Amino acid sequence: MSSAHHPPSPGDLWEKLGDLEELESISVLTGLFSTYETRLQNNPDDVAANDFFHHLALVLERAVSCNLNRR
Fold first, then answer.
1. Inside any domain, residue 52
2. pLDDT tens digits for 11-20?
3. Is the residue at 66 inside a domain?
4. Which among 35, 37, 50, 55 counts the fewest CB atoms within 10 Å?
5. Containing domain of residue 69, as a range?
6. How far is CA 44 from CA 8, 30, 33, 59, 65, in A?
7. Contact status, residue 50 vs residue 37, Cβ threshold 8 Å
8. How many C-alpha atoms does 7 have within 13 Å on its Cβ side?
9. Is position 7 within any domain?
10. pLDDT in tens, 21-54
11. How far apart (Å, rounded) are the C-alpha atoms in residues 48 and 55?
12. Total domain count for the chain?
């Protein structure tokens, strides 16, 4: 009897992200960006890729806004 492979839960992934060093975190973000950029180049209507970049833009905007408010 074979067991189905289940992806890690968001909680498991969050824990793994928390354990990463700074350079490893940058590598993860770069890998995600590259993956979705390729998907978008192959299919400009890719919903997941468009959602990724939409949400990335929102998070970046929030981060920049928070940094400006700290100054």
1. yes
2. 999 999 999 9
3. yes
4. 55
5. 47-71
6. 28, 20, 15, 22, 29
7. no
8. 4
9. no
10. 999 999 999 999 999 999 999 999 999 999 999 9
11. 10
12. 1
Model confidence, pTM:
0.78
49, 39 in Cβ contact below 8 A? yes
54: region left, alpha or beta (phi > 0 left; psi from -120 to 50 alpha): alpha
Task: Kindly report the backbone phi and psi dihedral angles of residue 7, in degrees, each rounded to the nearest multiple of 5, phi listed first.
Answer: -65, 155
Which position has the token pair 């919903």?
Answer: 47
Is the Cβ–Cβ distance between 53 and 36 less than 8 Å?
A: yes
3-state DSSP assignment of residue 15: helix
Q: What is the C-alpha to C-alpha distance for residues 47 and 28, in angstroms, rounded to an integer?
A: 21
